[in-house]
């Protein structure tokens, strides 16, 4: 699975002009499933997301996780993270999981996040979403687990 983490002061996702998910301080987690991913892959990714130390401690050093700062998670599906741009000008998406598999893995990731973390908001799988965020730092971390 692929994730792009953005440390945020706040973030929200809208669908059809309605806000469906929002957080204050925390992580915007853009997630993409790949064809070889399994529920165990999603669980490994979530474990890394929850423990990644990218929040500042008392002296400003990145030593704290989203759990340590009691931040929120805004989890948004984004198959375009699997874009292949090596040739031509139009990205290919063959490396993204098929929609049914992607939906199931995204939902598993969200369900596990809700079971392990107190503040979890989401986007809507497959929807045309508008994501608004205030990137803190900025800190943006790509992450991949197999």
Structure description:
By secondary structure, this protein is of the alpha/beta class. It has helices at 39-51, 99-116; strands at residues 2-15, 18-23, 26-32, 55-56, 62-64, 72-77, 120-122, 129-144. Strands 1, 2, 3, 6, 7 and 8 form a 6-stranded mixed sheet that branches. Strands 4-5 form a two-stranded antiparallel sheet. A hairpin with a 2-residue loop joins strand 1 (2-15) and strand 2. Helix 1 (39-51) crosses helix 2. The model has no long low-confidence stretch (mean pLDDT 97).
Please give the structural blueprint.
Layout (H helix, E strand, L loop, with lengths): L1 E14 L2 E6 L2 E7 L6 H13 L3 E2 L5 E3 L7 E6 L21 H18 L3 E3 L6 E16 L2
Parallel strand pairs: 3-6, 6-7
Antiparallel strand pairs: 1-2, 1-3, 1-8, 4-5
Helix pairs in contact: 1-2
> Can you tell me the residue ranges where pLDDT is under 50 for at least 5 consecutive residues?
none
Biggest sheet record: 6 strands, mixed
What's the name of the CATH homologous superfamily?
D-tyrosyl-tRNA(Tyr) deacylase
Assign an overall shape.
globular
The assigned structural class equals: alpha/beta
Total strands: the figure is 8
Question: Could you say what the CATH topology is called?
Answer: D-tyrosyl-trna(Tyr) Deacylase, Chain: A
Separate helix tally: 2
Features:
D-tyrosyl-trna(Tyr) Deacylase, Chain: A; 8 strands; 146 residues; alpha/beta
């Amino acid at each position: 699975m692929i994730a792009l983490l953005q440390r945020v002061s706040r973030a929200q996702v809208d669908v059809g002009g309605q806000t469906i998910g929002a957080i204050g301080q925390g992580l915007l987690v853009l997630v993409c499933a790949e064809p070889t991913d399994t529920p165990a892959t999603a669980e490994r990714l979530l474990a890394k997301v929850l423990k990644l130390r990218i929040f500042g401690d008392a002296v400003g050093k990145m030593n704290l996780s989203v759990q340590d700062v009691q931040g929120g998670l805004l989890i948004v599906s984004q198959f375009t993270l699997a874009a292949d741009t090596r040739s031509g000008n139009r990205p290919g998406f063959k490396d993204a999981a098929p929609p049914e598999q992607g939906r199931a893995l995204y939902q598993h990731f969200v369900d596990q996040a809700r079971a392990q973390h107190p503040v979890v908001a989401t986007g809507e799988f497959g929807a045309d979403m508008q994501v608004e965020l205030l990137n803190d730092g900025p800190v943006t971390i790509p992450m991949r687990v197999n």
